[in-house]
Amino acid sequence: MVRAKATATARGTATRARKTQTEKKPATASKAKTATRTAKKEHKEDQVPDIEDLLRPERLTISSSSSDEDKSTRGKATAQSKSVKPEKQADSQHDDAVDKLRIDLLTWFDENRRLLPWRGDRAGDYLGKSLAEVPEDARETPRRVDPYETWVSEIMLQQTRVETVIDYFTKWMKRFPTPQALAEASPDEVNASWAGLGYYRRARNLHAGAQRVTEEFDGKLPSEVADLLKVQGIGAYTAGAIASIAFGRAVPLVDGNVIRVFARLFAVGAEAKAPSLIKGCWSLAASLVDPKRPGDFNQALMELGATICKPRGAACEACPVRSCCRAYALDPTQVHEYPLKAKAKVLPVQTYAVGLVKRSSQRPDGKGADEFLVCRRPSTGLLAGQWEFLMARSATTSPTMPKRRSLVNDALKALDETIAPCRSCITEATREDRGLHEHTFSHLQHRLLIEKISLPSDRCATCKTSNENTSVDREDEVKIVDDISQDEVQVVSEGASAKDTAPASSEVTWMTLGELQERGMTASTSKCLILAEELEAKPTKAKARKPKTGTSTKKRKADGPASEKDSKQQQLRMTAFFSNGSKSKSSE
Amino acid sequence: MIECRLAEASVLKKIVEALKDLVTDAAFEFSENGLQLQAMDSSHVSLCYLQLLSTGFEHFRCDKESSLGVSLPNLAKVLKCANNDDTLTLKAKDEPDVISLVFESKKQDCIKDFDMKLMDLEQEQLAIPDTEYKSKVTIPADEFRRIIADLQVLGDTCKITAEKAGVRFAVEGDVGKANITLKPGEAADEEGGKSVNIDVEEAVELRFALRYLNYFAKATPLAESVELSMSKDVPLLVEYKMGEIGAIQYYLAPKIDEEDEE
After folding, report:
1. Cβ contact B259–A552 (<8 Å)
2. Which residue ranges have biased composition labelled Polar residues (chain A) (predicted)?
3. A275-284, A337-346, A434-443, B67-76 — which one is most confidently predicted on average?
4. Residues of chain B contacting A543 with CB distance shorter than 8 Å
């Protein structure tokens, strides 16, 4: 109750755009202040800055140096120092403040930056950890980083957690060490290396970009923002990042972290996605970027946002630029209220009945293995080119079990009979409801109702014969087509013929778990598999999670099968908390 | 060389029983101050830390710091051969490749001598940070074991909430849900020490896998009471203090909600 009120008041303080909300609040001490401020909005001295203030960054000031006094004095000190300064003084004060901000931020970054492969830090136990946690004797000078590495890392880091990216990045650089190597790779290799990271367009753009760089820029990334912007997949942010980090150009960049940091530094009561705020941040970033170490400055800003100035629970006590932070000066307990949260969008929901068809099969090498029926998504659109289980769109959000079955049946019928499992093998006993998985994309939500169909190992007569006749072409990297023909052996060897036989949308085939993993699985696909097979979820690093699953919670029906992986929580590991002490025998 | 004697083999028996389900291979680190063991379970979700002080032994000698890697399930089997009231002596040479266990009956009329081969263990040791926990709860050890066992009936994740008014263990599963609340008892209450003691500076609520708590509860015979220490976003510390000889501590990483920021 109390908390709710405090939050509401802070929001009131933070925004004038939502005045109506403020007016409804019961009068409290800080509310009174808000009201006064709102009243003298037309005053230039208005101490709560607004978007316009951001566009005039000379407003940056340092609060009194003894910023650790109690709230009220701090608030007052800032208010005074901010409001009644003549223009000239304000200018010089602004310069000082900017210098201090740069120095503080860079000093902090030098000491506390995280060790990351794309910053030239060598692989080892300390990757992902802050430099401050690394013992002196284990520190190494980072190697030189190629602009291509910066490029790859920046693309991967979009919408994706650093912890997740580390592994993908390392693997990626091994597989495609140069833009040329990437340009020559097949789309499927690229796709497979990206699988699981989400936002697959990024991979396609990176691939296309590498080809462009190879053809047009002689295999070297251009160093100017204007040229960089010509490369596919490089937008304002990535261009700024590459130009400043890899080429030392004093250009700004703004990402979600930077927006948050700025919104708090200047206590701007705007929604994080508000175009005016984003625009303001760009011009502010341009005026603040350190001319001598632009790359480090930009990374420091983002790092601050990622490790200290977090969306929830800002660690203000550890913040190097706290003394310039207006949100902190206003109310240290409400820093996290900036920027304002956007109203939660209601995403359109698409419901699918998923058929996870599993059969045990005799591989050409004589070993038995479980295979899954997988389809490939069309090469454009959502999750383009990714493999998934049989999906049938449902018109209703909660189809009943019989309805789901008939949807899956229809999908099976639509399959080419050379691929589809023999229908007489699918009986009531082979079908099992494995619950629901919800996956949130940036613009829509998938509800996947998963049904597992395990084809019996002792097959019916038709299957038996077909199984003996099965010939498989395993050589072809991508288009593996099992041909289970009822009548005669028919070898489908090349993609062209596969396309002819497959249903309109895409290719369909049987794959073992290993093959599926090799080609890469999307977050949803692996989740379906985990739910269906009760597999152990892949061990992930501390807090690492599937990229941008958003609110990916699964609910299980009351009568669903019980399995530990099904719970809503993610189990953390000790290594996330306790650092690695070197094990020396002489230790006490 | 190493030579240390315990008046009762049962102590080590119980200790090994309390560890062997959680960790299979672990290294006993002997030093002049005593011996300690730190190990994580195979999935690195929990960590156990055993500390035995030299003063708790009847006789303790360690000339050179050594690390003795043993298979705990095998050690448990060997210890089963000892009677609870046998005296137990551990012996090892410098740079040992075996550890000797000698069990002597109280009347000195039976002496059993076992040698166990040691293993080379390259285990990573974690630095355990000193944490000021925001809430500490002491409850009778058997009560804790009971709670964990009861809750496992319904689910696999337990939400522990420590507040000034009491500590709550909650679980929600397919079958249903359960809440067990313990309120602080009067310290003077009946046969001393057997009550719940709650020291909460800040209410804390965390979720943990019951499976591991259940492993921890295997240490129940070692102590009257168990202390649970929690702070937001850090592992739970479950500590069994064994009088003057030392303590066994378990750390367990929490589970977090999967929905989170960008």
Report:
1. yes
2. 569-588
3. B67-76
4. 256
Shortest distance, CA A572 to any CA of chain B (angstroms): 5
Closest residue in A to B29 (Cα–Cα)? A585
What mean pLDDT is predicted for residues A49-76?
Answer: 43
Domain CATH code at residue A318? 1.10.340.30
Between A436 and B54, name the one with better pLDDT: B54
Residue B161 sits at the chain A interface (C-beta within 8 Å): no
Q: Please tell me the predicted confidence (pLDDT) of residue B192.
A: 52
CB A412 within 8 A of CB A431: no
CATH of domain B2-117: 3.10.150.10
CA dihedral B119, B124, B129, B131 (to 10 degrees): -70
- Are residues A246 and A107 both part of a single domain? yes
Cβ–Cβ contacts within 10 Å for residue B63, how many?
12
CA–chain centroid gap for A336, Å, is 21
pTM: 0.47
Domain that holds residue A21: 1-40
How many domains in chain A?
3
Q: Which of A140, A149, A154, A317 is catalytic?
A: A154
Which one of A577, A582, A588 makes the best mutation probe of the B interface by having the most chain B beta carbons within 10 Å?
A: A577
Sign of CA dihedral A537, A538, A541, A547: negative
In this complex, do B262 and A310 lie within 8 Å of one another by their Cβ atoms? Answer: no
Closest CA to B26 of B67, B60, B81: B67
pLDDT at A338 (0 to 100): 83
Active site residue A154: yes
User: Which residue, among A62, A69, A33, A68, has the nearest Cα to A48 in the 3D structure?
Assistant: A33
Q: DSSP readout, A503-515?
A: -SS--EEEEEHHH
Name the phi and psi angles at B80, rounded to 5.
-60, -25
Give the phi and the psi of residue B60 in degrees, each rounded to 5. -140, 125
Domain presence at residue A72: no
Residue B75, φ and ψ in degrees, nearest 5: -60, -40
Question: Which fold is adopted by the domain B135-241?
Answer: Proliferating Cell Nuclear Antigen (3.70.10)
Model confidence at A297, in pLDDT bands (50, 70, 90)? very high
**Between chains, do B258 and A560 touch, taking CB under 8 Å as contact?**
no
Q: Closest to B255 (Cβ–Cβ): which among A551, A571, A578?
A: A571
Q: Which two tokens stand for residue A428?
A: 């009531």
| Segment holding B101, helix H or strand E | strand B98-104
Chain B residues with beta carbon closer than 8 angstroms to that of A441: none
| B232 vs A: CB within 8 A | no
Asked whether the predicted pLDDT for residue A470 surpasses 50, the reply is: no
Q: Classify residue A410: in a domain, yes or no.
A: yes
Cβ-based contacts of B65 with chain A (< 8 Å): 585-586
